[in-house]
Known about the structure:
Layout: E1 2-7, H1 19-22, H2 27-41, E2 44-49, H3 53-62, E3 69-73, H4 82-91, E4 95-99, E5 121-124, H5 129-143
Parallel strand pairs: 1-2, 1-3, 3-4, 4-5
The structure holds 1,3,4-trihydroxy-5-OXO-cyclohexanecarboxylic acid.
1,3,4-trihydroxy-5-OXO-cyclohexanecarboxylic acid (DQA) binds near residues 76, 99, 100, 101 and 110.
Amino acid sequence: MRILVINGPNLNMLGVREPGIYGAQTYRDLTEFIAEAARAEGIEAECYQSNHEGALVDKIQEALGRFDGIVINPGAYTHTSIALLDAVKSVNIPTVEVHISDVTKREAFRQVSYIREACVKTYMGMGFEGYRQGMLFLKELIGGPKAGN
Ligand code: DQA
């Protein structure tokens, strides 16, 4: 099974940006973590990051017919983007929302997630582990007894 892992704005700055909130590990560390977690589960994972809302919409649209599931951390677009919500609804690919930090314990403006209503599950406050949990959830959901084939 093929999973597309999408990271939105400023996640390329991991390791530099607010390490007290997001940790000391870099975006490259994250992609290596995802590749390793996917390999261990027999999942083909592709990572994509962009700071641009339209590029993220394009990537979600291009996933149609190419990926079985999406794991997405939309960054700040979580709290602002109806376009990303509509894109996920459009392709109808099972999608998991991930946040490195626990947004429920942060500012009021982070309490809204537009994308959440199109997602089958949300993981937050687990650091990189949330991405692995997201892939495992999709494997269970989509793969069923055929997982790994
Ligand atoms: C984030 C939380 C968002 O509120 C923030 O804008 C981000 C990262 C997280 O992974 O915890 O960029 O999605």
